[in-house]
Design brief:
alpha/beta; seven-stranded mixed beta sheet; five-stranded antiparallel beta sheet; 7 helices; 12 strands; 31% helix
C-alpha cells in the first residue's frame, strides 16, 4: 500500500506566527525541525501499520521546508516549486490514502494563521461549497478515488475537516487562542498523538470515503480587493462580477479548476497597495 502525505507548516505544533513559517524570519529554522519531526512520526507509523511506500509532498510556501537529511530514510520527498498541482503534486489513483499534516483553517474563519492560498483570498467555492486548501485538496484526492484518512492541525482545522469528510480522523496539536497564538502540545506529546491518531486512521480507513468532486465544477474566488480580482480576471475563461471582487471559472473537471485557482491567485498577488 502507498500513502500520500501533503504537509503544510501553519498547523504544526508550536508554530503560531509568521516568524516560524517565513524563511526570512528568525524562528523559521526551529519551525523546519518541528515540521520534519511531525512528518517522521506519521511516516514511521504508516510503515509500522503495513504501508510499503510513503510519499511526502512539501506543501508550504516555496515547498522546500522539510529537512531531507532528517527525514525518515525510507520515505520519498517531493520538494520545491513550481509544481503543476502544488500541494497535491504526485497524487494519483495508486494511493490507498492521503494525510493532510500541518494544515490550517480557511480564510475568514477562526484558526491559527488561517488563510486560503494567499492573503488576498476572502472566500473560495467549488459550486456552492465553501472550501479552503483542505477542502480543495480533498476534492483533488477524491478525483482519484483516494480518501483523506487523517488531518492534523489546530482545533479549528479539525472542525473544518470533520464537516467536509465524514469519518476522517483528526489530530489536534494546538488549540487556537487567536490567529497568532495557541495552546500548543509539546513536540514530544504532539508526536505521541500523531502516532496514535495515524494508527487509528489506518485501522479505520474503511469508514472514510473519498470526497468526490462535481463533474463540471465552477470555481469562484472572492478576493479582498477589487484590484486582485482584476488581475485574476486576466486569465482567459474567467468572469468577474462588476462592482464586486468575485471571479469565476467554469472548469471541465476538478484538476482544471485547481490549476485555474493556482493561476488566478498567482496573478492576484501582483496587486500592490499604492
Amino acid at each position: 500500500m502507498k500513502l500520500y502525505i501533503s504537509i503544510d507548516m501553519e498547523g504544526i505544533t508550536g508554530l503560531v506566527d509568521a516568524t516560524f513559517v517565513d524563511s526570512s524570519r528568525y524562528n523559521y529554522t526551529r519551525g523546519q525541525h518541528i515540521m520534519t519531526a511531525e512528518a517522521n512520526h506519521v511516516i514511521e507509523t504508516a510503515f509500522e501499520e503495513g504501508f510499503s511506500e510513503v510519499i511526502v509532498n512539501d506543501s508550504h510556501s516555496k515547498m522546500n521546508n522539510l529537512i531531507i537529511e532528517n527525514l525518515h530514510p525510507d520515505s520519498k520527498l517531493i520538494s520545491g516549486d513550481v509544481k503543476p498541482f502544488s500541494m497535491m503534486q504526485g497524487l494519483d489513483g495508486s494511493y490507498a490514502g492521503a494525510v493532510f499534516l500541518g494544515y490550517h483553517a480557511m480564510a475568514a474563519r477562526k484558526g491559527v494563521l488561517s488563510h486560503t492560498m494567499i492573503f488576498g483570498v476572502r472566500n473560495m467555492y467549488i459550486n456552492d461549497v465553501s472550501v479552503g486548501e483542505l477542502g480543495f485538496n480533498a476534492y483533488v484526492a477524491g478525483h482519484y478515488g483516494v480518501p483523506v484518512l487523517m488531518v492534523a492541525g489546530d482545533d479549528e482545522t479539525a472542525i473544518e475537516a470533520e464537516s467536509l469528510l465524514p469519518g476522517v480522523t483528526t489530530a489536534i496539536v494546538k488549540e487556537r487562542i487567536s490567529r497568532t497564538s495557541a495552546l500548543c502540545l509539546s513536540p514530544e506529546k504532539s508526536g505521541r498523538l500523531l502516532r496514535q491518531k495515524m494508527a487509528e486512521a489506518i485501522a479505520g480507513r474503511d469508514r472514510v470515503k473519498p470526497l468526490v468532486p462535481p463533474e463540471r465544477p465552477q470555481l469562484t474566488i472572492e478576493f479582498a480587493n477589487y484590484g486582485q480580482a482584476e488581475w485574476a480576471h486576466l486569465m482567459p475563461g474567467t468572469t468577474i462580477e462588476q462592482g464586486s471582487p468575485v471571479v469565476s471559472f467554469q472548469a471541465k473537471d476538478i484538476l482544471e479548476a485547481y490549476q485555474a485557482m493556482l493561476v488566478m491567485t498567482e496573478l492576484a498577488m501582483r496587486t500592490s497597495f499604492c
